[in-house]
């Protein structure tokens, strides 16, 4: 709980296009589930997106598309604050101050920077390097206590806690920033590629067949699951054996999460069989759960002024909260405004 005794959630999704079932199962589905329990801020993190070059027109469209995904997945804009990051300048202001709190050595440990920058680190934007500090600012500006994310964000959340702790210590303001708790569910916190389960499902993977995106049609879903890698042996009868078959294990996690069926029940249902029945049923489950979201996103994207208005209203509400924190921070740090 934060100082006012409330439980506050903040999470964000980058508007970099083609949200997939990893984003949905690892994050957005959880947002929907917890929206009545917490005060929630769901952000479209457009400033994070531009750490890698984005075509400006496409960025605008993708920003609205993330808002559409939130709504189409079932997030209620009247109960929760849905907004885009750049509309609340306090995020960037706090990020600058946190740049001065975070240590270079801490950022040098961030594996996501290493993955994203690749071999040509010298050519990565400085924004990409300090990206985790902006993420910490997103969370701390609302004094969020809980952050639902996939496991790829775990290290960034640990850094956020370290930054919050150091700020509180350096400025002698114990408990000013709460140390946010990650909300990461074990099995679905890392949905893997359909082609190679040693890699996470990702927007940047070159093959479309590695992921199911939320706007895929039933035919596209069918074709992708048909091609998805399984195993040369029938479905084993224990979870321990299934876990060794990484691609199968990943498909079972997707099945389990979408149908709310425990893994062992799924294994019992298909044990000893080849994978065609399993794949047919998984396809049906995906079509039943994902295509309505894609269809609703399509409808919402036809009414872009409505989406712009949702973001605008959300940003005004978010700004009211963020302004209070940034004023406190300026005062604590000794900046006159
Ligand atoms: P982003 O936009 O890459 O992903 C959005 C959310 O989807 C989760 N996710 C996955 N979960 C399971 N399996 C996968 N294959 C998978 N791929 C992505 C991510 O963990 C994330 O929860 N840095 C963040 C955005 C961000 C943020 C924040 C999140 C900015 N500020 C503050 C929380 C709080 C990111 O790049 O997410």
Strand order of the largest sheet: 1-2-3
Number of helices: 14
Sum up the overall morphology in one term. globular
- Count of DSSP E strands? 5
Small-molecule components bound: tryptophanyl-5'AMP
Main sheet record: 3 strands, parallel
* Helical content band: 40-55%
What structural class is derived from the secondary structure elements?
Answer: mainly alpha
Mean pLDDT: 96
Low-pLDDT sequence parts: none
* Measured distance between first and last alpha carbons: 29 Å
- H/E element order: EHEHHEHHHHEHEHHHHHH
Round the Cα radius of gyration to an integer and report it: 21 Å
Please state roughly what percent of the residues sit in beta strands, choosing from under 5%, 5-15%, 15-25%, 25-35%, 35-45% or over 45%.
Answer: 5-15%
Describe the structure.
By secondary structure, the protein is mostly helical. It is 55% helix and 7% strand. Strands 1-2-3 form a three-stranded parallel sheet. Strands 4-5 form a two-stranded parallel sheet. α4 crosses α7, α4 crosses α14 and α11 packs across α13. It is globular and about 70 Å long. The structure holds tryptophanyl-5'AMP. Tryptophanyl-5'AMP binds next to β1, α1 and α7.
Summarize the structure.
This protein has 337 residues and is mostly helical. The protein contains 14 helices and 5 strands.
Supply the key terms:
binds tryptophanyl-5'AMP; two-stranded parallel ribbon; mainly alpha; 337 residues; 14 helices; single chain
């Amino acid at each position: 709980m934060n100082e006012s005794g409330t439980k506050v959630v903040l999470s964000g999704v980058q508007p970099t296009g083609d949200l997939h079932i990893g984003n949905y199962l690892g994050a957005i589905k959880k947002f929907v589930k917890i929206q009545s329990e917490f005060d929630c801020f769901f952000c479209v993190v457009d400033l994070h997106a531009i750490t890698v070059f984005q075509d400006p027109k496409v960025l605008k469209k993708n920003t609205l598309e993330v808002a559409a995904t939130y709504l189409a997945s079932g997030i209620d804009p009247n109960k929760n604050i849905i907004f885009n990051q750049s509309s609340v300048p306090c995020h960037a202001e706090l990020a600058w101050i946190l740049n001065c709190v975070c240590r270079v050595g801490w950022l040098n440990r961030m594996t996501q920077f290493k993955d994203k920058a690749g071999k040509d680190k010298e050519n990565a934007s400085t924004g990409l390097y300090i990206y985790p500090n902006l993420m910490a600012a997103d969370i701390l500006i609302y004094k969020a206590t809980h952050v639902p994310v996939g496991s790829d964000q775990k290290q960034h959340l640990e850094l956020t806690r370290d930054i919050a702790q150091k700020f509180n210590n350096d400025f002698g303001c114990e408990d000013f920033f709460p140390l946010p708790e990650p909300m990461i569910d074990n099995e679905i916190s890392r949905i893997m590629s359909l082609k190679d389960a040693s890699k996470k499902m990702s927007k940047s993977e070159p093959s479309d067949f590695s992921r199911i995106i939320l706007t895929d049609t039933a035919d596209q879903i069918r074709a992708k699951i048909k091609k998805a890698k399984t195993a040369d042996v029938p479905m084993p009868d224990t979870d321990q054996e299934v876990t060794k078959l990484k691609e199968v294990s990943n498909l079972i996690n997707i099945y389990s999460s979408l149908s709310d069926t425990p893994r062992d029940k799924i294994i019992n249902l298909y044990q000893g069989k080849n994978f065609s029945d399993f794949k047919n049923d998984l396809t049906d489950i995906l079509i039943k759960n994902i295509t309505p979201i894609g269809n609703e996103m399509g409808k919402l994207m036809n009414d872009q002024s409505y989406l712009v208005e949702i973001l605008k209203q959300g940003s005004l509400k978010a700004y009211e909260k963020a302004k209070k924190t940034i004023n406190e921070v300026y005062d604590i740090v000794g900046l006159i405004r």
